[in-house]
Amino acid sequence: MNRYFYIDAEGKQKGTFSPEELRHEGIKRDTLVWTQGMEQWKRAEETDELRFLFSDTFNQPQVTADESTVKYDRPGEIGGSQIQQPMPKTWLVESILVTILPFMFCSSILSLLGIIGIVYAAQVESFYNRGDYTASLESSRSAAKWTKIAMWIAIGWVALLIIAIVLILVFVGSLSGLAGMSDLLDT
């Protein structure tokens, strides 16, 4: 029995589901589905294995003796019903901010390291929607790591600029103070 992906009403890809699980997902005849071996997405009613979903009488697909059914254990799956874990934090907004804001204010090319965070952040939801929670979690961790690296570089850059400005002001102030000392010595 094949496992299917489908495109929901909002245009998001979901999957994978067995044909019986698709029944509970409430797919319609014109819902686009795809499984391994298909060249392109098809309407659900055009797929032989899914036609039973739209017939008035439902018969459970019969497994013949020569077909073997293999059940793999997955983390989070109990008794055939999958527990949906919450999507990990994407870090997308944070990674965009630590990339753009320091670059605008400080012109630090090092702040562009946040782009790596953006790439990983964009992968989190994609992996999660495909049903690959482990990859989604790993992308979230990588996005967090690169976002924090870019943030600390930006903070360090701003701190260096503030220190440089303070030192320049102190130096200029000491030069003007020396000019006042020469007037005192002349008297």
Describe this structure in words.
With 187 residues, the chain is an alpha+beta fold. 50% of the residues lie in helices and 10% in strands. It has four helices and six strands, in the order E-E-H-E-E-E-E-H-H-H. The protein has helices at residues 19-25, 92-106, 114-130, 133-186; strands at residues 4-7, 13-17, 32-34, 42-43, 77-78, 81-82. The strands form two sheets. Strands 2-1-3-4 form a four-stranded antiparallel beta sheet. A two-stranded antiparallel sheet has the order 5-6. Strand 1 and strand 2 form a beta hairpin.
Any chance you could write out the topology, listing elements then pairs?
Elements: E1 4-7, E2 13-17, H1 19-25, E3 32-34, E4 42-43, E5 77-78, E6 81-82, H2 92-106, H3 114-130, H4 133-186
Antiparallel strand pairs: 1-2, 1-3, 3-4, 5-6
Helix pairs in contact: 2-3, 2-4, 3-4
